[in-house]
Amino acid sequence: MTFRTRFAPSPTGPLHLGHAYSALLAYDLAQAQGGEFLLRIEDIDQSRARLEWEQQIYDDLEWLGLSWTTPVLKQSDRLNLYQETLTDLWRRGVVYQCHCNRKDILAAASAPQEGGEPTMGPDGIIYPGTCRPNTSLNDTMPFPENAALRLNLSVAATSSRLSFTELSEGPNGETGLIEFSADDLRRSIGDVVLARRDIGTSYHLSVVLDDASQGISHVVRGHDLFEATKIHVALQQLLGLPTPVYHHHKLIRDDAGKRLAKRDDARALSKYRADGYTPDDIRHMTGLPV
Ligand code: GLU
Predict the structure, then answer these.
(1) Which residues form the Glutamyl/glutaminyl-tRNA synthetase class Ib catalytic domain (predicted)?
(2) Which value, to the nearest 10 degrees, does the dihedral of the CA atoms of residues 218, 223, 224, 225 take?
(3) Is the dihedral of CA 227, 228, 234, 236 positive or negative?
(4) How far apart (Å, rounded) are the C-alpha atoms in residues 125 and 102?
(5) Are 176 and 153 in contact (CB under 8 A)?
(6) Could you give the domains of the chain?
(7) Beta pairing partners, 98
(8) From the alpha carbon of 221, which atom of ligand 1 is closest?
(9) Ligand 1: residue whose CA is nearest its atom 2
(10) pLDDT of residue 264
(11) From 113, 115, 176, 284, which residue has the greatest number of CB atoms within 10 Å?
């Protein structure tokens, strides 16, 4: 199998040092194995994605000295595929329509009988299951358009043991074979949204389908997505897709130890470039070999 990594930014703001680190690391790993480095534009949220930011991504990555296999995959071109997959999951009865808004979820999750404080998962408050149906048979009901759909983990994660291989380390030093159960997922993550009402898909669904379509063998990304990987593994199993090897890396932080965000324009790559820094300086600053 071809060793293939990818960098998958959202064109919603300038790339910063943290993005540079992730992209360079994925690129270096592919180069070291004689493999391929791919690029994917994660622009499902069309209300936030901008073509100017997409162009800036290409410019910044080229400046860093990266090249990638073309064509670049854009998620906004694949909305039909996401919809087809959701329709299939709906027929199989493993997703359900959710009518809750944030306030409803907070209120239900903080109900006194639940212990007061809502439990947090990687996607925010763990969904308390208000809209989860008692039966999983949706095959006769028409697929709901423009609806929020949640993964029904009570019926979907049927295999009790799930696992992936971590080549580097998770945020708490997790490495090697990472094993977890469907029950762990229910407790720590809950019924995640697979289709947002406004965009008809979600990060989780799109990323899993696209990593498989692009034949990604090694997913390189930040520690912040380590828990999300468990959802992705469950989805891969549900959709009959292969599970890549994962390499979660450290997050680049500012001087105060805070993780960099898109709004930290001061750390934008374009700013460093305008200030006369070189790509080797960027490698240096992020701890990568020159
Ligand atoms: N688009 C995601 C981001 O900007 C990256 C997702 C991933 O690497 O899986 O954080």
Answers:
(1) 4-282
(2) 20
(3) negative
(4) 9
(5) no
(6) 1-77+253-290 (3.40.50.620), 78-244 (3.40.50.620)
(7) 148
(8) 8
(9) 9
(10) 65
(11) 284
pTM, to two decimals: 0.94
Residues 6+ apart with CB under 8 A from 211: 6, 219, 232, 244
For residue 34, count other CB atoms closer than 10 A to its CB. 8
What's the pLDDT score for residue 87? 96
Ligand 1 geometric centre to CA of 88 (Å): 25
Tokens of 66: 């990266």
Q: Report pLDDT for 1.
A: 80
- Per residue in 168-222, pLDDT (tens digit) is 999 999 999 999 998 899 889 999 999 999 999 999 999 999 999 999 999 999 9
CA 147-153-156 angle, to 5 degrees, is 95
* Per-residue model confidence as pLDDT tens digits over 47-75: 999 999 999 999 999 999 999 999 999 99
Say which residues have a Cβ less than 8 Å from residue 234's Cβ, sequence separation at least 6. 151, 153, 156, 157, 162, 182, 185
List the beta bridge partners of residue 38: 6, 69
Alpha carbon nearest to ligand 1 atom 3, residue: 9
User: Two tokens at 180?
Assistant: 């977890």
Separation of CA 180 and ligand 1 centre (Å): 23
Q: Which residues line ligand 1 (CB under 6 A)?
A: 8-10, 42, 207, 221, 225
Contact 148/193 with Cβ under 8 angstroms? yes
Overall residue count recorded for the chain in this entry: 290
What's the gap in Å between 277 CA and the centre of ligand 1? 26
For residue 11, how far is its CA from the centre of ligand 1 (angstroms)? 11
Which atom of ligand 1 sits closest to the CA of residue 211? 9
- Rounded to the nearest integer, the mean pLDDT of the chain is 92
